[in-house]
């Protein structure tokens, strides 16, 4: 019997439904080309779920996700819900779904398409060969530690605590080593071990875990140095693993090397192969409904799903090659077009990529 992979599809708000529709065409084409089988189930999430079900994350949506092998998410949010109370905001649903699904890492690849080098603010020769992944710890550290204020002789004092357990560090380190193993086998662990106790524990645990990965070359980079090296020698990085706040900042820095937010995919992973895949961009309410959004980030999120959850590397290669071919041929959506008058729409870009996919 064929191995049918179940994918929960959450289109969400704004441009979410437009870009997800193109990604679903890519899933269909993959079935035809490679003989894989996908069963998709659609679910409501975000603003649309608030409107229709009175909550951003309905129970049935969570059930659909929990019974799936992977989740494909478009984007959520928009001005319509911006002034809602906290529990009725789409972003609250995002935090809720990550927590409920036990997703503790965020994976963000950043690679350069040669033909888009000009879109970056860095010199093309610096960007040459850049192809890296930032693995960010998502549920620990200073964002989740105890927070409070107290009165002192100097007025109010605010405190945010940063805590990491060995367990939290070990599970993300293993994930990063595993990913590095499928790539160029280089891992940069980023910390601030010269100052922070959490970083010293981080480094100890990463070194201990590295004994199980003798084939992966490990380097330790202080976070301030990493921020510089990403601009100076981005192509020397393969996989970067780091804690929550450092990862938040470095993943945005790495993303911007590539020039456009419409091109960037991401994954959130937990224990095992299950993952939630989504473009890095938001719901882009300013262009929603016009058919001009760039579907590439969502299409590349499908490729990432194939690599990280299903191990369908050939199919992922096929998608990434197709995207490259279409861009090399000069096709652009408005966000990446130099001459906006030649820009094509979401549907046309999706179709060109589907047509360019080959076994
Ligand atoms: P955004 O990413 O939605 O848009 C920023 C700019 O980039 C806009 O000008 C938009 O038109 C453009 N853009 C984004 N994606 C594009 C694409 N695929 N093709 C072409 N252009 C694209 O960020 P924002 O404007 O700060 O946020 C809009 C809404 O999205 C907010 O409600 C925010 O909370 C939400 N948001 C959701 C997520 C998510 O679902 N994970 C992430 C970020 C923001």
TrEMBL record:
<feature type="binding site">
    <location>
        <position position="248"/>
    </location>
    <ligand>
        <name>Mg(2+)</name>
    </ligand>
</feature>
<keyword id="KW-0520">NAD</keyword>
<feature type="binding site">
    <location>
        <position position="224"/>
    </location>
    <ligand>
        <name>Mg(2+)</name>
    </ligand>
</feature>
<keyword id="KW-0432">Leucine biosynthesis</keyword>
<feature type="binding site">
    <location>
        <position position="108"/>
    </location>
    <ligand>
        <name>substrate</name>
    </ligand>
</feature>
<feature type="binding site">
    <location>
        <begin position="78"/>
        <end position="91"/>
    </location>
    <ligand>
        <name>NAD(+)</name>
    </ligand>
</feature>
<dbReference type="GO" id="GO:0005829">
    <property type="term" value="C:cytosol"/>
</dbReference>
<keyword id="KW-0464">Manganese</keyword>
<feature type="binding site">
    <location>
        <position position="224"/>
    </location>
    <ligand>
        <name>substrate</name>
    </ligand>
</feature>
<dbReference type="GO" id="GO:0000287">
    <property type="term" value="F:magnesium ion binding"/>
</dbReference>
<keyword id="KW-0100">Branched-chain amino acid biosynthesis</keyword>
<keyword id="KW-0560">Oxidoreductase</keyword>
<feature type="binding site">
    <location>
        <position position="98"/>
    </location>
    <ligand>
        <name>substrate</name>
    </ligand>
</feature>
<dbReference type="GO" id="GO:0003862">
    <property type="term" value="F:3-isopropylmalate dehydrogenase activity"/>
</dbReference>
<dbReference type="GO" id="GO:0051287">
    <property type="term" value="F:NAD binding"/>
</dbReference>
<feature type="site" description="Important for catalysis">
    <location>
        <position position="192"/>
    </location>
</feature>
<dbReference type="InterPro" id="IPR024084">
    <property type="entry name" value="IsoPropMal-DH-like_dom"/>
</dbReference>
<keyword id="KW-0028">Amino-acid biosynthesis</keyword>
<keyword id="KW-0479">Metal-binding</keyword>
<comment type="subunit">
    <text>Homodimer.</text>
</comment>
<dbReference type="GO" id="GO:0009098">
    <property type="term" value="P:L-leucine biosynthetic process"/>
</dbReference>
<keyword id="KW-0460">Magnesium</keyword>
<keyword id="KW-0963">Cytoplasm</keyword>
<comment type="pathway">
    <text>Amino-acid biosynthesis; L-leucine biosynthesis; L-leucine from 3-methyl-2-oxobutanoate: step 3/4.</text>
</comment>
<feature type="binding site">
    <location>
        <position position="252"/>
    </location>
    <ligand>
        <name>Mg(2+)</name>
    </ligand>
</feature>
<dbReference type="InterPro" id="IPR004429">
    <property type="entry name" value="Isopropylmalate_DH"/>
</dbReference>
<comment type="function">
    <text>Catalyzes the oxidation of 3-carboxy-2-hydroxy-4-methylpentanoate (3-isopropylmalate) to 3-carboxy-4-methyl-2-oxopentanoate. The product decarboxylates to 4-methyl-2 oxopentanoate.</text>
</comment>
<comment type="similarity">
    <text>Belongs to the isocitrate and isopropylmalate dehydrogenases family. LeuB type 1 subfamily.</text>
</comment>
<dbReference type="InterPro" id="IPR019818">
    <property type="entry name" value="IsoCit/isopropylmalate_DH_CS"/>
</dbReference>
<feature type="binding site">
    <location>
        <position position="136"/>
    </location>
    <ligand>
        <name>substrate</name>
    </ligand>
</feature>
<protein>
    <recommendedName>
        <fullName>3-isopropylmalate dehydrogenase</fullName>
        <ecNumber>1.1.1.85</ecNumber>
    </recommendedName>
</protein>
<feature type="domain" description="Isopropylmalate dehydrogenase-like">
    <location>
        <begin position="6"/>
        <end position="353"/>
    </location>
</feature>
<feature type="site" description="Important for catalysis">
    <location>
        <position position="143"/>
    </location>
</feature>
<dbReference type="Pfam" id="PF00180">
    <property type="entry name" value="Iso_dh"/>
</dbReference>
